[in-house]
Amino acid sequence: MRLGGRLAAAIEIIQDIETRHRPAADAMRDWGLSHRFAGAGDRAAIGNFVYDALRRRRSAAWLFDEDTPRAIVLGAAMLENALTPEALNAALEGDNFAPPLLDADELEVSATRLSQPMPADIAANVPEWCLPMVEAAFGEAWAGECAALAARPPLDMRVNRLKAERAKVLNALRRAGAEPSPIAPDGMRVPPIAGNGRHPNVQTEPAFQKGWFEVQDEGSQIVAELAGARPGMQVLDFCAGAGGKTLAMAAAMENRGQIHAFDADRKRLSPIFDRLKRAACRNVQVVAEEAALTPLEGQMDLVLVDAPCTGSGTWRRRPDAKWRLTPQQLEARLAEQVAILDAAAKFVKPGGRLTYVTCSIFLEENSQQADAFVRRMPGFRPVDHEAVWRDRFPEHADKALIAAEKGIALTPATSGTDGFYFAAFRRE
Ligand SMILES: C[S@@+](CC[C@H](N)C(=O)[O-])C[C@H]1O[C@@H](n2cnc3c(N)ncnc32)[C@H](O)[C@@H]1O
């Protein structure tokens, strides 16, 4: 396929996402199934056009002064590749599979817009109702933080120390372009996709089948490390889901002690069994019934609440979710977070720790929840988060946004990771 056919396919996929309100990954997969002639290179290029359009939707729509699938795909392609309107038309000319060339109105409005500075609220590429929240979260740095949140992400992996050393796994993944991660000691990274390329499918590598590594954002690895699970501990992972943090903590515990992995939604737990087996984790007990947790009350050294949240920190990887998020959904997540924190707290033993994690950038879900928790539960005190960070990552003092009593935030601009939040409370 030439550029025009690829852009037309991206427009068709965005149309499908919009009209059927479905996740981008599902729409991409269905398009692939009904266009089997498209090769791997075509699919990768089309995927990049779709995801770029969703990441930079407001900028791309501003370029044509309209928010249609055509405008956002063509606009994002122009911004990403620094193409003028005339250059885009020249590239599409004579291609029977291309979308219609830019007409006189489109040429004029996009040329005018390209000659003006882009307003900061447009360049931020977040929904309008979220702007006050990102300004509150980042202060003067909000524009740079939002720009990083709208950029292409790297592919991050975590070496499973139960089975292999990082040097050995890096060697096995040399062809895939893996490098040591900047912060996480067991992390490996393939840099963000350039141009029309694609990330390697690392899950087909023998090293993956052998359980030597997991795919996991570096921010997720860092918060799992900050939780501080150590050999011999009794740990409750209260929102274990598919087990990303459970697996990381099991490795940190060297398979000694015990992790109880619970999730209120048993369907979400289903991938954990295969993952535990492949990774050779032997100290994890999966619990699908809340009633079965009762004997653990007041017994845990560590309880991790990896709470359901808006996922605003992962907008680089799931940009479609950014535009679907509503204030009502935020309110619903906030209420769930309060209820889960309160339910999880009773499992911590005196002297033990409750840790709270989100993959959100919003203060409402992060430090404000932590403050409210301490006000509701006077028996819990926030730890000194600066000391926790210094202890675990002494060489990366400037790679997190840390407030001593209010927790640790990771962001794409500051940390080079997805957006994450971590807070810990000691039970007196
Ligand atoms: C952010 S996800 C967890 C991701 C997982 N820890 C990982 O690292 O792969 C949040 C999880 O919380 C679960 N959850 C929602 N409400 C819950 C509740 N009341 N109690 C326990 N888990 C809950 C959801 O089913 C979801 O799997």
Automatic annotation (TrEMBL):
What SUPFAM superfamilies does the record point to? S-adenosyl-L-methionine-dependent methyltransferases
What's a single GO BP term from this record? methylation
Give the top-level enzyme category: transferase
Q: What positions does the domain SAM-dependent MTase RsmB/NOP-type occupy?
A: 145-428
Q: Is the Metal-binding keyword given for this protein?
A: no
Q: Which GO terms describe its molecular function?
A: methyltransferase activity
Among Gene3D superfamilies, the record links this protein to:
Vaccinia Virus protein VP39 (3.40.50.150)
Catalytic residues in the record: C359
* Binding residues for S-adenosyl-L-methionine: D263, D306
Q: What is its EC number?
A: 2.1.1.176
A Pfam family this chain is assigned to: RsmF-B_ferredox
Q: Does the keyword section mention NAD? A: no
Supply the PROSITE patterns for this chain: SAM_MT_RSMB_NOP
Q: Which UniProt keywords apply?
A: Methyltransferase, RNA-binding, S-adenosyl-L-methionine, Transferase
The superkingdom of the source organism is Bacteria
Similarity comment: family membership: Belongs to the class I-like SAM-binding methyltransferase superfamily. RsmB/NOP family.
**What is the designated name of this protein?**
Ribosomal RNA small subunit methyltransferase B
Species in which this protein is naturally found: Nitratireductor thuwali
Gene that specifies this protein: rsmB_2
